[in-house]
Amino acid sequence: MLRIESLSKTYRTGDTALSDVSLEVPKGQILGLIGPSGAGKSTLIRCINRLVEPTAGAVWLGDVNLVTLGKAELRRQRRRIGMIFQEYALVERLTVMENVLSGRLGYVSFWRSFTRRFPPQDIQRAFALLDRVGLLDHADKRADALSGGQRQRVGIARALAQEPELLLVDEPTASLDPKTSRQIMRLLTEICAERGLPAIVNIHDVPLAQQFMQRIVGLRAGRIVFDGPPEALTHEVLTRIYGEEDWNAMRRGDEEQARAEAEARERMEALAQ
């Protein structure tokens, strides 16, 4: 279980990104972080694994407070946390299989990682993960030959190769079309359910969050202003999270996107007749 206690982050400029954030994420729960730009969503995710150093507070993963760890122990504990990035963070010139195996770098010796000679069990696990994310036939392709949705699937498989106890997911669908976004979110939620993995997902798409997340936390100006089930996200709550102007603009954008998708489906159906 992940437990965050009074987590705060203030930068040297005096800007406060997080202020007294506390929450718990039990085993198997998928939590969606929503909020306007600058609300602190990405900062919160990066403070958990200390890609950003918190100013105050505690982050407990099981019985270990990650905030207090030195560099060597932090490296070991990061093995327990899988990270999935918006921009995929793949090594473009390497194959899909090599990118997935990079998730095992924290477990092998320097020379094995340098020569990319991984143990047979790691290779077998990587093949199984590629099969699970639907990319087994692409194992030998270079990462730069893949579509955006395929790259995100490689990122998921790489994170799972760590055998993590927690997934941190930073805007996994921001660069994807609506259909691919739903496929990626469905894959993530299925995998978390299969493995009992808790996950925190920073997601900008409110309808997608409502469809796939078990719990929603809304951030505004670095503070939690909502924590509850997706069905409790009323117009009033969303206005509290985003502000009247921003939420109305987002809603109009969603409506326009839905109309465009409906028109595209109608055109495809007409062509099929």
Automatic annotation (TrEMBL):
Gene3D superfamilies: P-loop containing nucleotide triphosphate hydrolases (3.40.50.300). The keyword Cell division does not apply. InterPro entries: AAA+_ATPase (IPR003593), ABC_transporter-like_ATP-bd (IPR003439), ABC_transporter-like_CS (IPR017871), ABC_transpr_PhnC (IPR012693), MetN_ABC_transporter-like (IPR050086), P-loop_NTPase (IPR027417). One of its GO terms (molecular function) is ABC-type phosphonate transporter activity. Residues 2-246 form the ABC transporter domain. It holds the Pfam family ABC_tran. The keyword Glycoprotein does not apply. Keywords: ATP-binding, Cell membrane, Membrane, Nucleotide-binding, Translocase, Transport. Residues 252-273 are annotated as: Disordered. GO terms for cellular component: membrane. PANTHER family: AMINO ACID IMPORT ATP-BINDING PROTEIN (PTHR43166), PHOSPHONATES IMPORT ATP-BINDING PROTEIN PHNC (PTHR43166:SF6). This is Phosphonate transport system ATP-binding protein.
